[in-house]
């Protein structure tokens, strides 16, 4: 997995910071930066959330995440291009409250 990838023609960047949870168990925690606006939308570095994949469309990026140790379903986090709105389970969330909303999405 690349450590950083840009999307939407370089407007945004998704990077990962791998950290070892246990011997040979790595988590690739994502960070999302709006390069054009020079701000970090969210940063899960050092957290238990592992980036599985990113799907890009003209209007949104879908990030598939799972929480270590991976024994629960994946959660889709979406970032809409217009306004850089973050959605978890289809509901807008604040980047500062993201981890709480991701945990709640696991329960549902």
UniProtKB/TrEMBL annotation:
Origin superkingdom: Bacteria
Name assigned to this protein: Uncharacterized protein
């Amino acid at each position: 997995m690349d450590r950083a990838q840009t999307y939407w023609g370089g407007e945004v960047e998704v990077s990962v910071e791998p950290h070892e949870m246990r011997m040979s168990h790595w988590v690739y925690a994502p960070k999302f930066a709006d390069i054009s606006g020079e701000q970090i939308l969210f940063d899960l570095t050092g957290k238990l959330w592992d980036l599985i994949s990113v799907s890009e469309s003209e209007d949104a990026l879908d990030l598939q995440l799972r929480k270590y140790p991976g024994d629960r379903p994946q959660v889709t986090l979406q970032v809409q291009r217009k306004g850089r709105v973050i959605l978890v389970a289809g509901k807008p969330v604040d980047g500062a409250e993201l981890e709480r909303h991701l945990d709640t999405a696991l329960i549902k």
